[in-house]
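cache lookup: miss for this entity combination. No prior model stored, computing from scratch. Input as submitted by user K.M.:
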Amino acid sequence: MAKLTEMLADVQRRFAADADAAESEHALESVRIAYLGRNGEVTLVRRTIGTLPESERPGAGKAINDAVGAMEARLEAARGKLESRRFDAELAASIDVTFPAIAPQVGSIHPVRRIIEQSCDYFTRHGFAVVVGPEAEPDYYNFDALNIPADHPARESFDSFWLNDSLLLRPHTSPMQIRTMQQHRPPIAIVAPGKCFRRDAVDARHLFQFHQIEGLLVAQGIHLGHLKGMLTGLCRELFGADQVVRFRPSYFPFTEPSAEVDTTCPKCKGRGPTSPGAQAAQPPGGAQVRSTGVPVKTTGVPDARSALGCNMCGGSGWIELGGSGMVHPNVLREVGYDPDVYSGWAFGFGVERLGLPRYEVDDIRRFIDSDPDFLEQLS
Ligand code: DAH
């Protein structure tokens, strides 16, 4: 028995050294086979049991079984250690879990579409309906019904892509005023977004195909103040809470009076450069903007406009948005409304023009370049 115990201790000692030294799971398996396999070292020891006196055999069997249990436990521990070492090595070699993942390519709403949606959302919240109409219109809707007779010089700038003698791609969304008023009785409150086409030479501010959003409100007692209120609200929604709107006298055959609409430059707010220590400049006309957003006339204040150098408004402090005015009585008559009973306002803004200050873009062509980098920045 003493000899068996000694043999067993020797086997266990060598097994422990070999198991600890195994560098791979494969090597460990070889160690297992060498010691615990069918013809392994433990089997050799076990075979010596037969040489022992009968009384010692159960004790010897138990000693061998205990040793096998301890060896198997040691094997298991060594296997676990090797496994986690292999896993760590694999991670280090092929997967850097901190490496930034490849960003998925996600589409987004086009900035022009987003301005249309945001503007329509503003107007629908105020009770307006959104209407859309044909992109090719007879000259009647494009011109005649809008108080632009065939010989009127105002046709010149609109008179663009003719499809036949009387049908042309619409140069503005104003035909939707006529279509809507012909189909409905007042009160009318609509906005009409859509594509327009003109033979303009393409440059940083012009496209031959672009979008407009038209607005029309006709009812009893409608006046210019309603227009100013609605457009100021729109500008605040699109550009920020302090926007101011101003009307510049202008001429459109379908409105009287007519005005171009400007809003304070959303970038410099008409106040000049934001650099520290820069002297606050006054908006055009020596007007000062109070925190309420209402321009207040001041006297004796030097107009620092020319020194502003704002690259968004060129230092004027204002951004031009489009045309507007009170619907001309001839237009109301044309659709069978009595101008002595009803009055209304209308406006037409270029959507890409709204996009320039909205996204601080300096060239209108960026909107049609389909450059994913550009669109991603605005998404
Ligand atoms: N249709 C005009 C244009 O494209 C813009 C315009 C001016 C629309 C005055 C209006 C308006 O509704 O009242 O230049």
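stored under new cache key. The chain is about 40% helix and 20% strand.
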